[in-house]
Structures are given as C-alpha cells and as structure tokens.
Specification:
The protein is of the alpha+beta class. Helices cover about 40% and strands about 20% of the residues. It binds zinc ion.
Length: about 325
C-alpha cells in the first residue's frame, strides 16, 4: 500500500502531477545501498547476520547478531569503501523458482509470492523491495559513525554519501571551534583538554583548602562559652564540613552544625556533639523536613531540601 501525501484534496478522475523529493530519495538510496554493502561484507567475512535495520533522516543503524571488535568494524568499513570505488553494478531482479532455489541469499523472513533479489556480485545478495542506487560508486562513501554492543551482537551507526559529507563538515566545525577556543593546533587538542582538566582539579583542591582555612578561622573566633553553634555557608565539601564540626565539638559542648548550600538548592549538613544525640537529631530533620542521611550519636550527615529559616526553627 503506497500513500501519497498531498497539500490539498482533489476529485476522483482529476489529473495530478506527483514529484519525487529527489534529494531525499537519493539520500535514502545511498544509505540503504551502503547498508547492503556493509552487511554483505560482515556476512562474508565474519558470518554475521543482519537482525535489524533502521533508516531515518538523521541516523542509519544496522544490527548484527555477533560482537565485532574495533579492528573488524574498521576492516569492513575500509572494504566497503573499496567496493564503492570499484563501482560494481547493483542488480535487482525476480528470479524463476529454480534459480531462486539454487541461490544462497540473505532474507530476514520467509516471504510468500515473487521474490526480488538485489545483488552486488561477490559482495551481497539479498531479498529486498526497496530502491537502491544503480552502481556502488553512487553510494559515494560509507562511514561508520559509532558502534557498540547490542542485545548480544553489535549495533553499527553508518552514514553514506552526502549525509556522510554533511556529518564530516559538522564535526570539522566542532573541532575548529574547539581548537580556536583553546588556542592550540588540532593535534594538541586531547593534551590541551587533559591539561585543563588537571589544572581545574588542582584549583578546586586549592579553593577547598582556602575555604577550609577560612572556616577554621571563623570557628576559632567564637567565644568558648557558646554551647550550640550552627554555621550556614556555601560550597563546602564533605571533608571540610566534617573537619569543621570536629573543631567545633572540641570547643562547644552543645549541638555543633554546619549547613552548606542555599535556600534554592537545599543544604548538605554535618552535625556533631559531645553531649547530644546526633542520630536522633538527624531523625528529627528527616521526619520534620524530609532530610536524607544519618550517622552515629556523635556525628551525623546528610542533605535537606529546605530554607535556612525552616532549618533554624526545626533545630
Ligand atoms: Zn535493499
């Protein structure tokens, strides 16, 4: 059943002109013929069977029933491009019953009625009803975009012809933007990114050290006759918070707490005490404010999605 979508209704018997969206059709023919070549080679070289194929405007996937290594995928990809360069004919025909019976062809299911075979000699022979290009050269090129394990086999993403060219241009543009932004030659990009990540890690560590020092100075400034101390702050890591609470507990005998965060995103907290039951207080925060976390009688930690004033009231 073939549906033709129209921009307006027309009467029975009226003459109409239909036009194929050739750029779109040709793109699909390139992808589909490329899939025949890739699958045929995977079948011939590694004995793989195609168990799934999907073609959309943006992606082409084919599923093979065996796991393929990087090296195997690259070998098929390279051979596929040699098949394209050799410009073999892509033949489509309806064989008679005797010929069909004597032919070894790929087919996903048992088919009733006339079988149409699509053959690229020495590469692939498959039962298929879709449109293909006339010769392998018209596929232009075949590029494996990515592949990975899928249901015990391999899913391969490919692009052919002009869509492969578009994808190449898109990736070149991403690459150019990246090395221009990072101000380095293309070849140095991976090292440059690794360097920035390492620098970032060291800066984060340094910032956390400085924040720890500021917190300890703040703690040293509290008069020791204070019993309960609660500090609200931002961006402290868990270790700095624990160190801070330990320092507070040494000087103050009530409830010592540090909350790090803000009213919008909530707070992480560490509470400690030499006299109060922190586990019970954490349970109270959970029951009254929906806090998460827990700990021992001496120290508890967790997170709570509540405002500073709600936390202070609850404490
Ligand atoms: Zn086909």
């Amino acid at each position: 059943m073939i549906y033709h979508y129209c921009d307006r209704a027309f009467a029975a018997g009226q003459k109409v002109v239909g036009v194929i969206d050739w750029a779109h059709r040709f793109g699909n023919m390139q992808q589909h013929t490329g899939e025949h070549i890739f699958t045929g080679l995977a079948h011939n070289i590694y004995g793989a069977d195609n168990v799934g194929f999907h073609l959309s405007d943006n992606t082409v996937t084919l599923d093979l029933n065996i796991e393929l290594s990087e090296e195997q995928v690259r070998r098929i990809e390279r051979t596929a491009n040699l098949v394209i360069a050799k410009d073999f004919p892509v033949k489509a025909y309806y064989p008679d019953e005797a010929t069909l019976a004597a032919t070894d062809y790929r087919s996903k299911k048992e088919i009733d009625g006339a079988i149409r075979l699509v053959e690229i000699e020495g590469v692939d022979i498959c039962a298929c009803c879709a449109p293909h290009v006339n010769t392998t050269g018209q596929v232009g090129m075949l590029k494996v975009i990515s592949f990975g394990k899928y249901k015990g086999g391999t899913r391969v993403y490919i692009l052919c012809g002009l869509r492969a060219l578009d994808d190449y241009n898109h990736k070149m543009s991403l690459l150019a933007q990246s090395y221009q932004k990072l101000n380095c030659p293309e070849e140095n990009l991976p090292d440059r990114i690794a360097g920035i990540m390492e620098e970032n890690k060291q800066l984060k560590y340094r910032i956390s050290q400085i924040k720890g020092d500021i917190l300890m100075n703040q703690i040293a400034g509290y008069p020791s006759d204070l019993s309960d101390v609660t500090i609200f702050t931002e961006d402290l890591d868990a270790k700095t918070m624990r160190d801070g609470v330990n320092a507070l507990v040494e000087k103050h005998d009530g409830l010592c707490a540090i909350f790090s965060g803000n009213d919008e995103d909530g707070y992480n907290f560490v509470i400690g005490s030499s006299t109060r039951d922190c586990k019970a207080i954490a349970t109270g925060l959970r029951e009254l404010l929906g806090a998460k976390g827990g700990g021992s009688n001496q120290m508890a930690q967790g997170s709570v999605d509540a405002t500073r004033s709600a936390i202070e009231r609850t404490l």
